[in-house]
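Reminder to self: keep the SMILES exactly as supplied, no canonicalising. Ligand is NAP.
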Amino acid sequence: MDSFAFIIHPIDPKRDVSRKYPLLGKVLTENQINFFSTFFPPVYLSEIDGITSAATGKQIKGWFVACPYTPKRMLELPERTVYRKIIQTGRMAEKLGAQILGLGAFTSVVGDAGVTIAEGLAIPVTTGDSYTVSLAVQAIREAAKRMDIRLDQATAAVVGATGAIGRVCAELLAGDVERLILIARDRDRLEALRGRLGGGVRAELIVSTDLEQLARAQLILTVTSAVHDIIRPEYLQPGSIVCDVARPRDVSAMVAAARDDILVIDGGMVNVPGPVDFHFDFGFPEGKAYACMAETMALALEGRFEDYTIGKDITLERVNAITTIAQKHGFRLSGFRSFEREVTEAQIESVRRNAHRAGSARWLHSAGMRCV
Ligand SMILES: NC(=O)c1ccc[n+]([C@@H]2O[C@H](COP(=O)([O-])OP(=O)(O)OC[C@H]3O[C@@H](n4cnc5c(N)ncnc54)[C@H](OP(=O)(O)O)[C@@H]3O)[C@@H](O)[C@H]2O)c1
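Structure tokens returned for the bound complex:
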């Protein structure tokens, strides 16, 4: 049976360590976990079964293996040290018999995004970023439809627009919307991106290093490599949609708590074809996976055992090709979730109503009237 493996790692240190080691997760502090993760070996997590192609009936099996480093540790340690640990984790996958390896969360962000890791392993590697782009853009288009926001009249923003994932998301959204704000910290790279996206696109392009510009956008796709949340409630306009693809999240939990007039959705959740059992709780409901995991699975179902998405230069061609492969085997954009909970139709309706109310109050305020 063809097979794959996928590397995950602790993102929220206490919560995620508890998933494998309940006692350690309870007694260690976050700082202690960050520190000890440096010396911890790769960890075998589980075998994955039941994934079945909707097109061919082919079944595959897989494994979750864990690289012990937290995002903070991956940014602090020398790149060489981090590569070494990820490659060690990949070797565990090779020994298990995996024919392709997917890199989860920060293991795909660090350094050259999989190039050195692929060189250090005998099996092919993919970051999963091509399908992550596809799903993130599908999710924001679908959410806009559900919130009655017309794409061709909307202002959208991509936060982390110069990153591997953000850049291609921006490229796709620039063909959809009226105005697109590209946000990151480095202005030169933003200007270079604006130059590259260039004239031919539909949207007027604005670049900014200021997150307060988000107040102008109805649609926000955020995908930075920031270690802590960066988007705060006061930045956002009533009725806006924020699709958060970043792990760790970019959106503060305060946004959901403080603003009932905004729709925050997690980017990149996918329904997996077949009676999949991960034998490990990574925080998603049954039968669902991250888009980057789904890319690895779809490649295994297709028998494409090759380095698929590696490096920071993701191409639209690869995004479109993996979208077709995944669609064929039965992977689908899942319903919306927000902070680990399903978003129901009633909640979307309530956000719409609250946004309308907040929008009217704001209009009355700006017209100099008093709201009683
Ligand atoms: N949900 C999924 O299935 C999935 C799959 C793969 C990856 N991811 C996540 O996607 C995220 C991005 O990955 P990537 O490979 O695209 O990373 P990347 O290539 O390193 O790009 C990161 C982007 O974020 C910007 N950035 C970093 N810190 C920032 C801050 N504090 N404020 C504003 N912008 C900031 C960077 O530009 P500046 O340095 O100029 O600010 C850059 O544009 C990561 O969180 C990763 O874990 C999710």
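Points to follow up:
DSSP finds 13 helices and 16 strands in the chain.
The pocket of NAP is lined by residues 105-106, 108-109, 113, 128-129, 132, 159-166, 184-186, 189, 223-226, 230, 245-247, 267-268, 290-292, 312 (CB under 6 Å).
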